[in-house]
Amino acid sequence: MGGPASEPRIVVDAVWKVFGARCDEALAMSREGVGRSDVLEATGCTVGVRDVSFEVLPGETFVVMGLSGSGKSTLVRCLSGLTDVTAGSVRIDGDDVTSMSSSQLRALRRSKLSMVFQHFGLFPHRRVIDNAAFGLEVQGVSKVDRRARALEVLEIVGLAGFEQHYPQQLSGGMQQRVGLARAIAVDPEVLFFDEPFSALDPLIRRDMQDELVRLQDRLQRTLVFITHDFAEAIKLGDRIAIMKDGVFDQIGSAAELIRSPATDYVREFVRDIPKTKVLTARDVMQVGEGGEQRVHADVVVEHLLPQLLSSDSVLDVIDDSGRSIGVVDRAAVIALLEEQV
Amino acid sequence: MTTVSRVVAPVDAGWKRFAPWVGLAVGALALQAAFAGSNAFPGGLDTLISGPIDEAGAWMRENRRSHPLFTGVFMPISDIVDWVVSGLADVLAWIPWFAVVAIGAMLPITRRMYRQALLVAVVMGYVGVFGLWELAMATLAVMIAAITLAVVVGLPLGVVASRHRRVEAALRPVLDAMQTIPAFVYFLPLLMVFGIGNVPGVVATFIYALPPLVRLTVLGITQVPSSAVESSKMFGATSLQTLVKVQLPMAVRSIVTGMSQTIMMALGIVVLIPLVGAGGLGTAIFESLNQRRPGRGLAVGLAIVAIAIVLDRIARASAERDPLKRLAPGAMAGLAVGVLVIVAVGRGAGWVDFPAVWKPNAFDPIDDVVTWLRDNLRGVTRAMNDFVVADVYLPLRDLLVDVVAWPVVVFVTGWIGWRLRGAKLAIFGAAAWLVIGAVGLWSATMDTAVQVLLATLATLGISVPLGVWAGRSPRLESVLSPFLDALQTVPSLVYLIPFVVFFSVGMFPGLIATVMYSLVPGVRITALGIREVPVESVEAAETFGATPRQILLRVRLPLAAPTIMTAVNQVIMMVIAMVIIAGLAGGGALGFLVVESLARSKFGQGVEVGLALVLLAMLLDRFTEAAADRLRPPAGS
Ligand SMILES: Nc1ncnc2c1ncn2[C@@H]1O[C@H](COP(=O)(O)OP(=O)(O)OP(=O)(O)O)[C@@H](O)[C@H]1O
Ligand SMILES: [Mg+2]
Questions:
Q1: Per the domain annotation, does A16 fall within a domain?
Q2: How confident is the model over A4-63, as pLDDT tens digits?
Q3: Is B619 part of any domain?
Q4: A292 found inside a domain
């Protein structure tokens, strides 16, 4: 996990989005620290996104998670240029999305961006293959070429044989695969996902998550993924941002959020998470030496349990180079298990 | 704030509640006393409008061939429309009749709608068998031309309106007005501009078909889910690409589905256009009216229903977007080739015209039945006629025209407007009467208003109870439904014929035809209102032990009241349209003046009558709409 260290692909700097006619006034009030509901009462404006900043590295999957109404969709729409920001800037590969003309924005979208929508946003009047080829079609790619490419991506998402169907003839999960195929057909560098799997039932959702993980291993694109499901966030995200009332409460890896939640809100979120599945040996080790058995620092705690419970001794934690960096003992793991129930 | 005051109002103590009513009574009586004896609206302004219009009409007649306005604008438009209609008519006449049937049935077949295809073939066969083929083709040509024109103009207009709020806002009242104004009002100006013939007929039909089309386009485009539009944008589609590749294809279904409505509107007019010199089935209806042949009238009326069915099924078939229901491309090509072969064979063998197998008078026995009924029921029908005309209509008309002073009418209208919605409506109502009076049409409009009132009351007296009943009994509704459909599709003029035979000319046959014509929306909308009463409200009343009667009176009717008021509004609009048509049967008043001005080319009078009609229609429309608003429970927040 973790993208290669290089220039960030997306840089979001102090972005605000305020809905309503008197948004400037509301923005000024908010900046002075007036709360969301007070601003609404005074100006009739809703603060959707409040002073959010973050960076996403190339090849990284950045997950934004929060409850309904926390401003996730608004944020991702700001990133993709579907909504204008009220203040702040969004740079993709150094170009500021917020100050682009509509033709510049169009060019950027054609060359680099793609999006998968919560309610699929498929075109019911087009066959699956022409849905998948849509992005190429608007770029003016010839029919033969774009269909060939569409077939390729449909194959990748497991929809070979359904090209000639229409979206409404497919199940929800298959429809979202079309949405996914349509998004990757244009070979985008950056992909936005706005709760793409929320409308699916749990089993299909898991399938789709696995599919996405597999794809991402292969394609190594930059993803911004919105969800309200913490399990999904952990599964997909290199880093996770917890959003509440338009604000980022905390940004970090799943383990960081669990180990040291920054606010009560985050603590509330991570409480029900099976920690032994998320935390690794590195997260629970203590300073020390010894132990006959050696484990890699990135192994999750759950996998340590058999070894720890079968013998009395501590485990030696090593890093990539095989150097010992600490020990894990039974007490630490039991403490973790107790916390969990 | 308004909701608060409305809720509090009934608590007002004592005499204050009656103050407005006292004001009304005192004002009316005072005005009546002051103006008694001079009840006629003062003259002097009669020619204010008709004078210049008549001059313009004369000028147009003289300069029709020379002035650039005609040679540069109207003549080219006229030529194009004429070229299209006669071209279409020629093509339809050139194609062998059975090939026309085949083409009509083909589109439903390509969507695997075989029963609809059969229906199309059968009804077209009917038209031919009854000797109406040529007239029907002429009507079809006018219809196709008018609807094509409406699509060519309406679609882009709808697209623009859907993208620009301001355009939409500006367009809306214009479209509303186009639909509120009775068709007759358009005829005269069109006659002035385009001269007599097919062209004013096509344009009048076009004017009626346009508003629903624009509305449906706006609706269709705005209803495209924003997720589809956004995903198109997200892939870098230009706004034109989004329109052409996403919005229009997705809107097509709702646009074409709504075409039935457009077709109905157009058919209602196409029957009347012989009045401006256009041909088609309408001429046959006017003939049957003049010859008092209800059987023949019915035969022609059914032919018009046939055209409606054909156009409607073709529209529905083309709206069928479900790709699964389409024939394979090979089969479609085969079908097309088959039709071409049929055309070629028919032309080659010279089988072009519909063979005259059946006498076109197969419905004539109906004439005999109606005549027999008339002769044997004379006592009853005369009594009915006399009672309504002599005991109800004439006294009421005389009261309003001869006794009540005109300022009283203006005052009372203003007072009602003010109570309903405030100063604006009050001023509009009063001003409408003043304009009507000023152009010298006070008595005629009063007369028409009385007829409208009587027809409306009669229609509501039948349709509201029927609608309430139908709303509670799905079985009754399913029994009524085909009759209501038939009543709505058969052109209104056709109703007039048997009643004219029955009662001879006068206002009574027109009144009955008007009531029949206007029943449908009354029943339908009332039933809808009753059906839409929330189940919870009814059940709540039941748990408190309310009897069915109490539930009807205390729960269903009050909750359905605003919808029923909308029904009243619709009924009044239909009544106004029909009362004018009834003028053709001797209904007198504005209807007579309209027909007269058309027949004698009295342009000034025609425009004035049109204005009076529009004002009367708008007045009743706005007042009933305001009343419906008042009946609506205050909104949540
Ligand atoms: N176009 C808009 N106009 C006004 N307010 C808006 C608009 N869009 C969103 N909002 C408000 O902004 C806030 C955040 O909405 P947003 O849709 O971003 O939430 P979300 O986190 O995506 O929720 P969900 O999980 O339900 O999709 C909400 O209070 C919403 O009412
Ligand atoms: Mg959302």
A1: no
A2: 457 899 999 999 999 988 888 899 999 898 888 898 888 889 999 999 999 999 999 999
A3: no
A4: yes
Rg of chain B in Å (alpha carbons)? 27
The A residues from 204 to 263 touching B (CB cutoff 8 Å) are none
* Assigned token pair, B282: 């309408």
Q: What pLDDT is recorded for position B6?
A: 44
The rounded mean pLDDT for chain B is 80
pLDDT band at B624 (very low <50, low <70, confident <90, very high): confident
CB A248 within 8 A of CB A265: no
ipTM, interface predicted TM-score of the complex = 0.78
Residues A162, A145 within the same domain: yes
Domain range enclosing B552: 377-406+441-601
d(C-alpha B264, C-alpha B309), whole Å: 10
pLDDT bracket for residue A227 (50, 70, 90): very high
**Selection from B204, B179, B178 nearest residue B191 by Cα:** B204
Helical residues (DSSP H) of B13-74, grouped into ranges = 19-35, 47-63, 68
**Closest by Cα among B317, B255, B315, B331 to B111:** B317
Instruction: Considering every ligand atom shown, identify the ligand nearest to the alpha carbon of residue A65 and give its number.
Output: 1
* Chain A partners within 8 Å of B235 (Cβ): 109-110, 114, 134-135, 138, 182, 186
Average pLDDT for residues B548-561, to the nearest whole number?
A: 81
Question: Which pair of structure tokens corresponds to residue B278?
Answer: 């256009």
Task: Say whether both A205 and A317 belong to one domain.
Answer: no
Number of domains comprising chain B: 2
- Tell me, yes or no, whether B575 lies in a domain: yes
Task: Flag whether B220 is in a domain.
Answer: yes
Considering only CB atoms, A124 lies closest to which of B231, B250, B324, namely B250
| Domain extent for A320 | 277-340
Q: Is A289 among the domain residues? A: yes
Tell whether B340 and B455 lie within a shared domain: no
Ligand nearest to the CA of A37: 1
